[in-house]
What does this fold into?
Amino acid sequence: MKNFLITGGAGFIGSHLVESLIRAGNCVLVVDNFNDFYAPTIKKNNVKSMLSAFSSEEKERFTLQEGDIRNSDFMESIFLTSNIDVVIHLAAMAGVRPSIEQPALYYDVNVNGTLCILELMKKHNVKKMIFASSSSVYGNNKKVPFSEVDVVDEPISPYAATKKAGELLCHTYHHLYDMSIACLRFFTVFGPRQRPDLAIHKFANKIMAGESIPFYGDGSSKRDYTFVDDIIQGINASIKWISEPNSSYDVFNLGESKTIMLSEMLMAIESSMGKKAMIDSLPSQPGDVNITYADISKAIKVLGYDPKVDFHKGVDRFIQWHRIENEY
It folds into this structure.
């Protein structure tokens, strides 16, 4: 049994990870600030859903603290009162387009927040960390699929720049203080509890309501969609890796290594819902990349990463959850 601190643990990926770690017999402390980037009730419902599925013994191994990762006094109290073995740092201001409107906020949360956590890990001798990075660090990379050895010095959004900065901070603290850190570049994660601002969830909401869908570009942009169960498997594999005696610092892509066009994604949702979408055609948006496509050979070889969920089956599972949540 290990003691995990998960920042952002009430969110989409975080809540699935909490369930996995608790059911594996671990203790989990979640820090989340329940900000209003999207409705805080969504995260609170994630927590309720988790707790309702836990046994009484499992509930005893789960703790939730509401607070901000930038608040050093609050975070200090977390480290002082908890015997933390591993930090899984998921908390961040997310989203490419909003980061263009609020770059200072994104820098403050994603860079200064990460620095606060690393400083406290140093102070309290916590040596193991998983850092949630993003495929956005690749920008409009001309070589596909994207490999961890590719140069990622040309981000095209403040969000992407903050994630690259987070990776660099992690490497610095690994080098100076002998921390074992895995930086995981997530590729377009989807599934039950997905954030409502993300395309699959947003499109499903619009179709359900009979509203037109904002459709940016000509539909030819491609994404490497990754089902949340596969991401959780990759995180768990990364936890094992940083726990090995010879682990150090490394970066891993977690994706499916397949691409789906925007137009194909919409058709999959229409098919699963049994309803056609109304389209509002709009120009491509600044900061949006043309393609994401993960080379996952390194994660397969080093971590034993093994994504299994086909995109169309994943969409069906998301829509099944969406129907239950919205009672239609």
Notes: The two ends are 41 Å apart (CA to CA). Residues 3-190+228-255+295-307 form a domain with the Rossmann fold fold (CATH 3.40.50.720). The chain has a mean pLDDT of 95.
